[in-house]
Amino acid sequence: QVQPVESGGGLVQAGGSLRLSCAATGRTFPNYPMGWFRQAPGKEREFFAAISWNSDSTDYADSVKGRFTISRDNAKDTVYLKMNNLKPEDTAVYLCAVAGEYYSGSSYYYYYPTYWGQGTQVTVSS
């Protein structure tokens, strides 16, 4: 069983930056994608970033493109999310996702994870 564990959330002012980390503890295996979702109060869970096992492919939702960067360190089974120029609408619980099915194509992409973290709160004040 794989258990992703997020860290790095908190309160930040608009325009500020945060970096989230997610370590995949427990049984791990090679060649799996990782990603990030978020869920704001009263809204559906939103997929916004994914990365392939070898970091060759990354995808971002338009809402974060150019502001957020996903990366990973396979030696540590860890995925990172650097968030710059944060906005109040970025306020949400951020969830790490591990393994599952990830497709990155020229015109579309999708990611259906297998394992989920518990989430870490990110609050951006105006």
What does this 3D model show about the protein?
- The protein is an all-beta fold.
- 0% of the residues lie in helices and 55% in strands.
- It contains no helices and 13 strands.
- It has strands at 2-7, 10-13, 18-26, 34-39, 46-51, 58-60, 68-73, 78-83, 92-98, 101-104, 109-112, 115-116, 120-125.
- Strands 2, 4, 5, 6, 9, 12 and 13 form a seven-stranded mixed beta sheet that branches. Strands 1-3-8-7 form a four-stranded antiparallel beta sheet, with no helix packed on it. A two-stranded antiparallel sheet has the order 10-11.
- Strand 7 and strand 8 form a beta hairpin.
- The radius of gyration is 14 Å and the shape is globular.
- The mean pLDDT is 94.
Strand content: over 45%
Q: What's the shape?
A: globular
End-to-end separation in angstroms reads 40 Å
Mean pLDDT: 94
Helical percent range? Answer: under 10%
User: What's the story with the biggest beta sheet?
Assistant: 7 strands, mixed
Q: From the helix content, strand content and strand pairing, which structural class follows? A: mainly beta
Q: Please compute the radius of gyration using only Cα atoms.
A: 14 Å
The number of distinct helices, counting runs of at least 4 residues, comes to 0
Note poorly predicted spans.
Answer: none
- What is the string of helix and strand elements? EEEEEEEEEEEEE
Number of strands: 13
Instruction: Name the quaternary structure.
Output: single chain
